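Async update (no meeting this week)

Hi team, since we skipped the sync, here's where things stand on the single-chain job. The sequence we agreed to prioritize is pasted below, unchanged from the tracker. I ran it this morning and attached the output directly underneath so nobody has to dig for it. Comments welcome in thread, and please keep replies under the output.
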Amino acid sequence: MKIRNKNINVPNALSLLRILLIAPFVYYYIQRQIVPAIICLLLSGLSDMLDGKIARRFNQFTEVGQMLDPVADKLTQGTVAICLAVDHPILLPVLAIFVVKELTMLIGGAYLVFKAKKRPSGAMWYGKVGTILFYFSFGLIVALKGIWHIEILPLSIALLTITAIFMLYALYRYFRIFLTLLHSSDPKDAIDLKADITARREP
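Output:
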Protein backbone atom coordinates (compact mmCIF):
# COMPACT_ATOMS: atom_id res chain seq x y z
CA MET A 1 0.00 0.00 0.00
CA LYS A 2 1.43 3.37 -1.02
CA ILE A 3 2.01 5.84 1.82
CA ARG A 4 2.30 9.57 1.33
CA ASN A 5 2.87 12.48 3.67
CA LYS A 6 -0.22 14.70 3.84
CA ASN A 7 1.99 17.76 4.29
CA ILE A 8 3.10 17.38 0.67
CA ASN A 9 0.15 19.02 -1.04
CA VAL A 10 -0.74 21.90 -3.36
CA PRO A 11 -1.59 24.53 -0.70
CA ASN A 12 1.75 24.04 1.04
CA ALA A 13 3.56 24.14 -2.32
CA LEU A 14 1.86 27.47 -3.10
CA SER A 15 3.01 28.88 0.25
CA LEU A 16 6.57 27.82 -0.59
CA LEU A 17 6.19 29.47 -4.01
CA ARG A 18 5.37 32.78 -2.31
CA ILE A 19 8.59 32.56 -0.32
CA LEU A 20 10.60 31.73 -3.47
CA LEU A 21 9.08 34.71 -5.31
CA ILE A 22 10.54 37.16 -2.78
CA ALA A 23 14.07 36.99 -4.24
CA PRO A 24 13.12 37.80 -7.86
CA PHE A 25 10.81 40.59 -6.66
CA VAL A 26 13.66 42.25 -4.74
CA TYR A 27 16.01 41.84 -7.71
CA TYR A 28 13.59 43.39 -10.20
CA TYR A 29 12.63 46.19 -7.80
CA ILE A 30 16.26 47.14 -7.18
CA GLN A 31 16.91 47.08 -10.93
CA ARG A 32 13.84 49.32 -11.39
CA GLN A 33 12.25 46.69 -13.63
CA ILE A 34 8.79 47.50 -12.32
CA VAL A 35 6.71 45.28 -14.60
CA PRO A 36 8.50 42.01 -13.68
CA ALA A 37 8.40 43.09 -10.01
CA ILE A 38 4.65 43.62 -10.23
CA ILE A 39 4.24 40.23 -11.95
CA CYS A 40 6.05 38.58 -9.03
CA LEU A 41 3.67 40.27 -6.59
CA LEU A 42 0.63 39.32 -8.67
CA LEU A 43 1.75 35.67 -8.73
CA SER A 44 2.34 35.84 -5.00
CA GLY A 45 -1.12 37.31 -4.39
CA LEU A 46 -2.74 34.74 -6.67
CA SER A 47 -1.04 31.87 -4.86
CA ASP A 48 -2.12 33.36 -1.52
CA MET A 49 -5.73 33.42 -2.72
CA LEU A 50 -5.64 29.92 -4.19
CA ASP A 51 -3.95 28.01 -1.38
CA GLY A 52 -6.77 28.70 1.08
CA LYS A 53 -9.46 27.87 -1.47
CA ILE A 54 -7.77 24.61 -2.44
CA ALA A 55 -7.19 23.64 1.20
CA ARG A 56 -10.88 24.18 2.00
CA ARG A 57 -12.16 22.53 -1.19
CA PHE A 58 -10.08 19.36 -0.84
CA ASN A 59 -9.71 19.32 2.95
CA GLN A 60 -5.92 19.65 2.76
CA PHE A 61 -5.41 21.51 6.03
CA THR A 62 -2.27 20.55 7.96
CA GLU A 63 -0.54 22.07 10.99
CA VAL A 64 2.55 22.68 8.83
CA GLY A 65 0.45 24.51 6.25
CA GLN A 66 -1.30 26.63 8.87
CA MET A 67 2.11 27.91 10.00
CA LEU A 68 3.77 28.07 6.58
CA ASP A 69 1.04 30.27 5.11
CA PRO A 70 1.34 33.20 7.57
CA VAL A 71 5.15 32.96 7.51
CA ALA A 72 5.08 33.34 3.71
CA ASP A 73 2.67 36.28 4.05
CA LYS A 74 4.79 38.05 6.66
CA LEU A 75 8.02 37.60 4.72
CA THR A 76 6.41 38.91 1.54
CA GLN A 77 4.73 41.87 3.23
CA GLY A 78 7.88 42.79 5.14
CA THR A 79 10.02 42.65 2.01
CA VAL A 80 7.64 44.83 0.02
CA ALA A 81 7.33 47.31 2.88
CA ILE A 82 11.09 47.63 3.30
CA CYS A 83 11.65 48.14 -0.43
CA LEU A 84 9.01 50.88 -0.54
CA ALA A 85 10.10 52.57 2.69
CA VAL A 86 13.72 52.83 1.51
CA ASP A 87 12.53 54.91 -1.44
CA HIS A 88 9.84 56.77 0.52
CA PRO A 89 11.06 57.71 4.04
CA ILE A 90 7.61 58.95 5.11
CA LEU A 91 6.56 55.29 5.30
CA LEU A 92 9.26 54.42 7.86
CA PRO A 93 7.18 55.00 11.06
CA VAL A 94 4.43 52.63 9.95
CA LEU A 95 7.04 50.19 8.69
CA ALA A 96 8.55 50.18 12.20
CA ILE A 97 5.15 49.39 13.73
CA PHE A 98 4.60 46.69 11.13
CA VAL A 99 7.97 45.06 11.88
CA VAL A 100 7.37 45.14 15.65
CA LYS A 101 3.88 43.69 15.21
CA GLU A 102 4.96 40.89 12.89
CA LEU A 103 8.06 39.96 14.92
CA THR A 104 5.99 39.88 18.10
CA MET A 105 3.41 37.61 16.49
CA LEU A 106 6.09 35.40 14.96
CA ILE A 107 7.87 34.95 18.29
CA GLY A 108 4.55 34.37 20.07
CA GLY A 109 3.50 31.78 17.52
CA ALA A 110 6.83 29.98 17.76
CA TYR A 111 6.58 29.94 21.55
CA LEU A 112 3.08 28.45 21.39
CA VAL A 113 4.14 25.70 18.98
CA PHE A 114 7.57 24.70 20.23
CA LYS A 115 7.39 25.52 23.93
CA ALA A 116 3.75 25.45 24.98
CA LYS A 117 2.74 22.79 22.41
CA LYS A 118 -0.35 24.81 21.49
CA ARG A 119 -1.89 25.43 18.09
CA PRO A 120 -1.64 29.10 16.96
CA SER A 121 -4.83 30.79 15.86
CA GLY A 122 -5.54 31.49 12.22
CA ALA A 123 -5.81 34.97 10.70
CA MET A 124 -8.67 37.08 12.08
CA TRP A 125 -10.68 39.79 10.32
CA TYR A 126 -8.87 42.61 12.11
CA GLY A 127 -5.53 41.19 11.00
CA LYS A 128 -6.70 41.04 7.40
CA VAL A 129 -8.11 44.59 7.55
CA GLY A 130 -4.83 45.84 9.00
CA THR A 131 -2.93 44.21 6.14
CA ILE A 132 -5.31 45.69 3.54
CA LEU A 133 -4.92 49.17 5.05
CA PHE A 134 -1.15 48.70 5.11
CA TYR A 135 -0.96 47.88 1.39
CA PHE A 136 -3.57 50.48 0.45
CA SER A 137 -1.78 53.30 2.28
CA PHE A 138 1.67 52.33 1.00
CA GLY A 139 0.38 51.79 -2.53
CA LEU A 140 -1.53 55.08 -2.74
CA ILE A 141 1.30 57.18 -1.32
CA VAL A 142 3.86 55.57 -3.61
CA ALA A 143 1.57 55.84 -6.66
CA LEU A 144 0.82 59.52 -6.04
CA LYS A 145 4.48 60.40 -5.63
CA GLY A 146 6.10 57.94 -8.02
CA ILE A 147 3.65 58.06 -10.93
CA TRP A 148 1.88 61.43 -10.73
CA HIS A 149 4.56 63.29 -8.71
CA ILE A 150 1.98 64.43 -6.17
CA GLU A 151 2.72 64.53 -2.45
CA ILE A 152 -0.17 65.52 -0.15
CA LEU A 153 1.35 65.49 3.32
CA PRO A 154 -1.94 65.72 5.33
CA LEU A 155 -3.38 62.80 3.34
CA SER A 156 -0.24 60.73 3.85
CA ILE A 157 -0.22 61.41 7.60
CA ALA A 158 -3.93 60.57 7.89
CA LEU A 159 -3.56 57.29 5.99
CA LEU A 160 -0.50 56.22 7.94
CA THR A 161 -2.07 57.16 11.29
CA ILE A 162 -5.22 55.13 10.61
CA THR A 163 -3.11 52.19 9.44
CA ALA A 164 -0.84 52.35 12.49
CA ILE A 165 -3.80 52.51 14.91
CA PHE A 166 -5.49 49.51 13.30
CA MET A 167 -2.29 47.48 13.26
CA LEU A 168 -1.77 48.17 16.98
CA TYR A 169 -5.40 47.19 17.62
CA ALA A 170 -4.85 43.92 15.74
CA LEU A 171 -1.71 43.25 17.79
CA TYR A 172 -3.69 43.80 21.01
CA ARG A 173 -6.44 41.39 19.90
CA TYR A 174 -3.93 38.73 18.84
CA PHE A 175 -2.15 39.09 22.18
CA ARG A 176 -5.42 38.32 23.99
CA ILE A 177 -5.81 35.20 21.85
CA PHE A 178 -2.20 34.25 22.67
CA LEU A 179 -2.91 34.43 26.40
CA THR A 180 -6.10 32.37 26.00
CA LEU A 181 -4.29 29.64 24.06
CA LEU A 182 -1.36 29.67 26.45
CA HIS A 183 -3.61 28.83 29.41
CA SER A 184 -6.00 26.57 27.50
CA SER A 185 -6.44 22.96 28.59
CA ASP A 186 -8.70 22.07 25.66
CA PRO A 187 -7.24 19.09 23.70
CA LYS A 188 -8.17 20.73 20.38
CA ASP A 189 -5.67 23.51 21.10
CA ALA A 190 -2.78 21.08 21.59
CA ILE A 191 -0.24 20.39 18.85
CA ASP A 192 2.83 18.19 18.38
CA LEU A 193 4.57 19.55 15.29
CA LYS A 194 7.31 16.92 15.21
CA ALA A 195 4.77 14.11 15.31
CA ASP A 196 2.69 15.84 12.67
CA ILE A 197 5.62 16.13 10.27
CA THR A 198 6.88 12.58 10.77
CA ALA A 199 3.66 10.68 11.31
CA ARG A 200 0.93 12.54 9.45
CA ARG A 201 0.62 10.03 6.64
CA GLU A 202 -2.24 8.44 4.84
CA PRO A 203 -2.58 5.43 2.54
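Quick observations from my side:
The radius of gyration is 19 Å.
Residues 17 and 44 are 8 Å apart (CA to CA).
Reply here if anything looks off.
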